[in-house]
Structures are given as structure tokens and as C-alpha cells.
Amino acid sequence: MPRVSQDHLDARRRQILDGARACFARHGYEGATVRRLEEATGLSRGAIFHHFRDKESLFLALAEDDALRMADVVAEQGLVQVMRDLLDEPEKRDEEHAADWLGTRLEVSRRLRTDPDFRARWAERSEQLTAATRQRLIRQREAGNLRDDVDVSVLTSFLELVLEGLVSHLAMGLPADDMEPVLDLVEETVRRHRRSS
Question: Quick one: which H or E segment has residue 54?
């Protein structure tokens, strides 16, 4: 029997995550049945659960994948850039992927509220985004770009709260055309203001 290459396994895992993202976003966690996951991924239950122990592990892997992508953006450009990416012009982004990401993010929020076991498992994963935000803010403070009268942990919580509010705003289908100036204000709020001489 020929051995399957790591590239093939990685591609299959990506295929499962991409299909599952759309399925969870469209049907929610409970509604994402194994049959629907099979249809969304184009793979059998055996292929899906060869890569993931169960549906919860698949959902957590998906949420973790999204958190890692966000952490990469945060490390390079900051949490406000993650928010700007959510508002990007439709022609600059994959509209379907953005809607699926938003749906998954909302499903994570719902499960955090209603499922203590999920909340405990998710706590480890969500720390990656918080840590990336905190490290970015520390670097910005050391470079003299960040206000120094507020603790970095408070600024981190502030930015995460704004992100959650923006996600809720978008999820409710409210207009986002006027959000760029709001994000400019958020960015300005955390910057260090230099006194003019």
C-alpha cells in the first residue's frame, strides 16, 4: 500500500476545515450534522474523522485555525487591522469566506456562553490571540508609539472588546459603511500623543 505524502494529508485537512467552516456558519454547531459535513467537504465521515476525533475536535480546530490567522495579522499589523479586514471592500476579499468566518466566530461566542466544557477547551486556544495582541502593544510601547498612561492589559482588553462589538454589529447585518472612522478613533485612542513644542 503506497504511503500518503504529508502534502496530501495537509491538503485534505485544509479541505475539511474549509468545508466545515461553511457548514458550521450556515447551520450552526448542532445543525452541522455528519451528513452535512460530508456534503460540505465532499468527503466521507471516515475521511473526516480520520483527521479529527469528533465534531467538537473539528470545530475547535477550525476556531483555532481562525485564531492563528488572526494572531498572524495582529503580530504584523495589530488587532485594528483584523477589524479593518472585516470591513474591506467586497472586491478585495473573499466575501463567502468572510461570511463563513463571521458565522464561525458567532458560533464560538454562542458555545462559550452555553457550554462550560467548550469554554474550558477554548480558553487555551483564545490565549494565542490575546498574547499576540499584548506582544504587539508592548512592541509599540517600546517604540514610543503607544500611550503609556494605561496598562497594556487594559488596552488589550479594550481592543478585544471592540472586536467583539464589531463582530456583533456585522452579524446583525447593520451597515458597516461608516465604521472606518470609528476604527480610526479606536487606533487613535491607544496611540501616544506627542506634545507639540
Answer: none
Half-sphere exposure of 18 (CA within 13 A, CB side): 11
Exposed e or buried b for every residue in 94-108, given b needs 16+ CB within 10 A?
eeeebebbebbbbbb
DSSP state of 191: B
Place of cell 447593520: 174
Residue 146 backbone phi and psi in degrees, to 5:
-115, 140
Cell triple for residue 145?
Answer: 508609539
Place of cell 502593544: 137
- 82 pLDDT tier (thresholds 50, 70, 90): confident
Contact 124, 62 (CB under 8 A): no
Grid coordinates in use for 110? 454562542
Q: Could you give the CA distance from residue 67 to residue 125 in angstroms, rounded to a whole number? A: 8
φ, ψ for residue 191 (rounded to 5)? Answer: -75, 155
**Measured between alpha carbons, how far is 49 from 58 in angstroms, rounded to an integer?**
8
Instruction: Classify the C-alpha dihedral 40-44-45-50 as positive or negative.
Output: negative
**Helix crossing, 116-142 with 55-77: angle to 10°?**
10
Closest C-alpha among 107, 109, 85 to residue 97: 85
Degrees (nearest 5) of the Cα angle 109, 66, 60?
60
The pLDDT tens digits of the residues spanning 142-176 come to 999 999 999 999 999 999 999 989 888 887 778 88
pLDDT digits (tens, 9 = 90+) for 178-196: 899 999 999 999 998 765 5
